[in-house]
Each structure stands twice: as C-alpha cells, then as structure tokens.
Amino acid sequence: MTDCIFCKIIAGDIPSSKVYEDDKIFAFKDINPKASVHVLVIPKTHIDSLDHLDHGQQDLMGYMTLKLPEIARSQGLNNGFRTIINTGPDGGQEVGHLHFHILGGSKIPGFN
Ligand code: 5GP
Ligand code: ZN
User: Counting atoms of ligand 1 from 1, which one is nearest the CA of 32?
Assistant: First the structure.
C-alpha cells in the first residue's frame, strides 16, 4: 500500500478528472487550477522527482514529453501552453510523484 496520492489517483482509489490514460502515463485536471486549463501528466510508475530519474527511464521521459502537445490540444490549447516541472522542496514540489504541469487557456504572463 502506497502513501502516494498520485499513485492512488492512478489506481482509482482517489477520484480525479482524467483527461488521458495509456499503459505508461496518466493525465488529470489539477484540483486547484492556476490557469483556466491546468492538467497534470504523470508516469504510471512511481518516480519521486526529476532528481530520482535513472537512465533506464529515458524512453519513458521521452514518451511523456512527446505526449504533452497532444494532451494540451485535447484540452483546447491550440495556441500554445506552459509546461512546468517542480523538483524538490526549493523547487516548490508538493507531491512526491514526478509530474508535468500543463497550463493554458489564455496568454500566461512571462516570468519577468
Ligand atoms: P507541485 O507543487 O508538487 O508541483 O504540484 C502538485 C499539484 O498537485 C498542485 O498543483 C495541486 O493542486 C495538485 N494536487 C494535489 N493533490 C491533488 C489531488 O488530490 N487531486 C488533484 N487532481 N490534484 C492535486
Ligand atoms: Zn506515486
């Protein structure tokens, strides 16, 4: 039994608004959206963070990255989107299961 909330979401033990699923990845709406579209994309296998990847996961990371535009378009983001990965405490990571944020729906301000 895992304590990871995202593993529980994948298993269906915690409900979520799923937007995409296949054998490798799961995508669902963020419960506290920071933009009109805010989706999280996660690997089905538990990986703590970018800091915990190993070389055997290169193909999975490539696969996830290539899926992001497709998932973004499926949510109506036809004119671009922002992708964020927070890593570790100083990176603002709150959930310890690697995830890509996809944000969009209107022009997102720059960082500056
Ligand atoms: P982090 O800060 O770790 O990069 O992002 C974690 C994200 O997960 C946050 O944006 C937060 O709103 C979202 N989140 C946390 N718990 C849940 C949950 O139970 N369900 C969903 N759908 N999103 C969650
Ligand atoms: Zn997990």
Answer: 12
- Residue-wise pLDDT tens digits, 12-39: 999 999 999 999 999 999 999 999 999 9
CATH code of the domain containing 37: 3.30.428.10
Ligand 1 pocket test, candidate residues 30, 37, 39, 42, most atoms within 8 A of CB: 30
46 assigned to active site? no
User: How far apart (Å, rounded) are the C-alpha atoms in residues 6 and 8?
Assistant: 5
Minimal CA–CA distance to 88: which of 53, 57, 49, 61?
49
What's the number of domains the chain is made of? 1
> Per-residue pLDDT for 80 more than 70?
yes
Cα of 40 from ligand 1 centre, angstroms: 8
Q: Does residue 67 lie in a domain region?
A: yes
On whether residue 109 sits in a domain, the answer given is: no
Token look-up 């999975």 returns 60
